[in-house]
Predict the structure.
Amino acid sequence: MNMAESTRLVAKLRGWGFEEAAIPEEADVVVVNACVVRQRAEERAVSRIKTLESLKASHPGLTLAVTGCLVPLHDGQLQERFPQVDMFMPAGDLSGLDSWAVEHGLEGDCAPSVLNGPSVFLPVIQGCTNGCTYCIVPSRRGKERSRPPGEVVFEARELARSGVKEVVLLGQNVNAYGRDLPGAGCDLAGLLRELQNVEGLLRIRFLTSYPTDVTDSFLEEISTMDRVCPAFSLPAQAGDDAVLSGMGRRYTVAQYRMLVSRIREALPGAGISTDVIVGFPGENEVQFEGTVSLVTGEGFDTVHIAPYSPRPGTVAARTLKDDVPAGEKKRRQRRLEAVQRGVATESGARLVGRDVEVLVEDVSGGGQGRGRTRSGRLVFFPAAEDRVGLEVMVSVKQASPWWLQGILKEGRTTDD
């Protein structure tokens, strides 16, 4: 989501006539988009802002803005904490930048043609109401707020007209899309159905999905949509029921495993990635081994692993003692990373010798093409620049835990 919002920031500034500076010292405007999901991310953001405040002291004409989840929805203390910052914009709300542009007499068009690449993030819902005890996002992004479907479809059409071939629908809980909108029948499946008709789009992805919101009817509907990619970002967070309960997650390990099975039954070959937190308060070795068993047994394509980090204002930070030592969290993280590396290596090896369909996202100066399969696997292959934006067939020759390597198959591309 932060990447999508940064792209929109860039589009706005370019539309007003700005060009990206090579270094902050050459800039007229600097915007910091800060993530605070974990303590380490917040520390990096704060350090960066402090450095830029020193820069502003020697460059008084510089406009310094801060956005992202560092900025609470309602808080007047940030200005005292960072006195040199000119603007604070809550995550997902760029209206402050628009007001600043009006004050400075800036006009322009931030049309999607300024965006780079054939695949673009498209936010469709902000906020979350799930109430996970460890998560700071609801206090920073608020309750779920869906964009009207007509607005999303219009933007997708504009993106397609500018050459975009794939849109990735974004939400903290994307499957909650439409629940807050008036009227019946407005949900993620309905939105995907409308986007299927956008001329020029080859692929549609969506993330992130809360497990209990992925229903059998949703899976049945998208299984008939040829442009919707069978790829799921499905955070498990833990492989033990007691830990899940402490996290405020509304499912058991058995229910999560059953969902993975239903996805693979409805959409054979679907890619599934997950998120895991290690060292949640009270997590013992046996409970951690439950997470190891989940990762080993379900064969995820990707596992994003992070040590628990208490976030200010969350239920977990207020009520639970952070009692797993930092060194133990790191050990568990490394153990789980090694397990997932083995799982992904085995999974990738099964694709060697097979042909996969890839959307070419970019080609480096050295002729190295890069793209993803419909299930979300990253693939590298020799290619010319004129292949960017096309769907091509690649014969897989090598596999690592994180990517595939292959060569282009001669013949027609999907776009042909």
Summary: The radius of gyration is 22 Å. The first strand starts at residue 29 and ends at 34.
